[in-house]
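Exam prep: given the inputs below (a chain plus XIL), describe the expected output before reading on.
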Amino acid sequence: MGTAVDANALNADATYRAAVAKEFDQVTPENAMKWSEVEPVQGQFNWGPADELVAFARAHGQKVRGHTLVWHSQLPSWLTEDAFTPAQLRDLLRKHIFTEVGRYKGKIWAWDVANEVFNDDGTMRDTIWLRALGPNYIADAFRWAHQADPNALLFLNDYNAEWLNPKTDAYYNLIKTLRKQGVPVQGMGMQGHLALQYGLPNTVLQNAQRFDSLGIKTAYTEVDIRMQLPVDVYKSAAQSEGFGSLLRACLLVRGCVSYTLWGFTDKYSWVPGFFDGEGSATPMDENFQPKPAYYTMRETFQLAGH
Ligand code: XIL
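Solution:
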């Protein structure tokens, strides 16, 4: 059971810090390991917040999910604004992966190597990496990450990846192909950013099962369930069902190794800042009071003997 951790809150808020230590056995840096954070100026590194979280996890016996190495978002502006050649970009990406994975070698349990590489219709997302390097950038990234830390589990990761749809078809096929080629892809991360107004997906278990059948690990990596505010008891009940159904799917497939929340308290959730009029997306309110979703997950773990 994991959570994304807000690096500032971890330092500034003792209640938050205590809850991260008490409720979870895995942590993911919400932002601290993203490229724009670790190398804001080319060649000048800012490892402080990431190092602190890794040390916190170690002190509390927690595993760390590294997030994320190749993404189209939260890239430093020196990288996106300078007109690098494809060969230079390939070199920069390679160096970035070796530097970051190498720094935390042996301390990161699983890496989200490539994040959000497909569109919802299953075509490849148009990114700086696809444009410059072509579709093989994904295989390259996994090979480099594996060389830098052969013991870390290497994941793909995306949203709208929790049910059967064209995007998960694309991931299923990509993983099959990559594994046939011997590329070290070892897991499929399903972010789990759901929204009540779109309805809860009903092929969650089938989707987890088909990835499981490929012989890889699966994980719910960024679960939160937002809603249009204000919250009421019906939305709260539906949210609880959503958190429960993803957790049940994880417990029901053999290779599901992680169920991570994208924040556990509304006090620090990214949702209100990104989705107008939406919120209440986590299992605890701003005062760390548990919602029905919290108790549903606890009971589900208890029933499963955890
Ligand atoms: C979000 C963070 O929560 C925000 O604090 C940040 O401003 C933007 O990114 N998918 C991902 C995460 O893989 O990295 C994103 O995190 C949420 C969507």
